[in-house]
Design a protein that fits this description.
Helices cover 47% and strands 14% of the residues. It is α/β, with parallel strands linked by helices. It has two domains: 186 residues, Rossmann fold (3-Layer(aba) Sandwich); 152 residues, Rossmann fold (3-Layer(aba) Sandwich), CATH 3.40.50.2000. The strands form two sheets. The protein has a seven-stranded parallel beta sheet, sandwiched between helices. The chain has a six-stranded parallel beta sheet with strand order 10-9-8-11-12-13, with helices on both faces.
């Protein structure tokens, strides 16, 4: 029996891990044993525990409870703790997701112990090395034996860097998840009714990336843009705890008086809110794709995106952190093309497990 050790730490990773963990339990339980390690990077109940509950992910065998501090301090603490777990568990493979500090620490710990790494969402590039996520994903890709790409664009990115060995376009596990949970969200979520919203007549917004929250000028522009939209259309803003604290310190919370500021939402409630929005305004990579999966126009408050397909197909507009561009993009927001399927066929998780078994 093969032993896989899965490392997660943040909301998007919990979601992706749900798809693969479900396949491992339902189809491969007699061939693969999974050990789940939660670094604790997202520790708040609404950002962590509730996701495991709703997504049906087994409780992690290890919760390292590491969060907060600078990038270096957090990654260093994770590296030491993950190394101890790897020495104890001696897995055949380490499975990492995306581009967080948890991803980087897991990759570093595994490669130094000569344990092969499978990287889900390999090959994504924003080409902005000021983003910590960009550094994390580049380093993780360099150390991985299996580079599990969500798109052909990701495959081409790796090839341009001279990486071709072990590279496979498996499709996007987030697409798997959206197909599996969209109807469940309709059945179980009361978020739209509880918030007094009308389907198709509100905007859903999220803001959490450091490039926006740590720059006072950018954050002020984002708040101004959302306030302008809210003059004519209700805006719902689930506020990340870190963003809330920064806004409070900057005196911006009072500026959100005409916006429905709510706590981070459980997974099914967030899916329900995304599906029924008139438009989505975000700086999240995962939410950009979910908007595309649910055929909702998206306005991305970044200067670049890893998910270029959403832009080229007309579903996503990049506006940076500029209030006028945010407002203008909303005024012209419309549905894009449905002629392509860049994120696979909804069976990425099964392909990933098959590849690991084949190796």
């Amino acid at each position: 029996m093969k032993k896989i050790l899965t490392i997660v730490g943040a909301r998007p990773q919990f979601i992706k891990a749900a798809a693969i963990s479900r396949i491992l339990r339902d189809t491969y339980a007699d061939r693969i044993q999974e050990t789940l390690v939660h670094t604790g990077q997202h520790f708040d109940h609404n950002m962590s525990e509730v996701f495991f509950e709703e997504l049906g992910i087994p409780a992690p065998q290890y919760n390292l409870s590491i969060s907060g501090g600078t990038h270096g301090a957090m990654t260093g603490r994770m590296l030491g703790s993950i190394e101890e777990v790897l020495i104890r568990e001696r897995p055949d493979w380490v499975l990492i997701y995306g581009d967080t500090n948890s991803t980087l620490a897991g990759a570093l710990a595994a490669v130094k112990l000569h344990i092969p790494i499978a990287h889900v969402e390999a090959g994504l590039r924003s080409f902005n090395t000021r983003m910590p996520e960009e550094i994390n994903r580049i380093v993780a890709d360099r150390m991985s034996a299996l580079l599990l790409c969500p798109t052909e664009t990701a495959v081409h990115n790796l090839a341009s860097e001279g990486i071709t060995q072990g590279v496979v376009n498996v499709g996007d596990v987030m697409f798997d998840v959206s197909l599996y949970f969209r109807s469940l969200a309709d059945q179980r979520s009361n978020a739209i009714a509880n918030l007094g919203l009308t389907r198709g007549e509100y905007v859903l917004a999220t803001c959490h990336r450091a490039e926006n929250t740590d720059d006072p000028a950018r954050l002020q522009q984002i708040v101004s843009g959302l306030r302008e939209i809210a003059r004519t259309t209700p805006v719902v803003l689930p506020l990340h705890p870190r963003t809330r604290n920064i806004m409070a310190e900057a005196g911006l919370l009072d500026s959100l008086a005409n916006i429905h500021v709510i706590e981070p939402q459980p997974f099914l409630d967030m899916i329900a809110l995304e599906k029924s929005a008139r438009a989505i305004v975000t700086d999240s990579g995962g939410v950009q794709k979910e908007a595309y999966f649910f055929q909702v126009p998206c306005i991305t408050m970044r200067d670049e995106t890893e998910w270029t397909e959403t832009v080229s197909l007309g579903w996503n507009t990049l506006v940076g952190a500029d209030a006028q561009r945010i407002e203008a993009a909303f005024a012209t927001a419309r549905q894009g093309s449905l002629d392509a399927t860049p994120y696979g066929d909804g069976h990425a998780a099964a392909k990933i497990v098959d590849l690991i078994l084949a190796h």
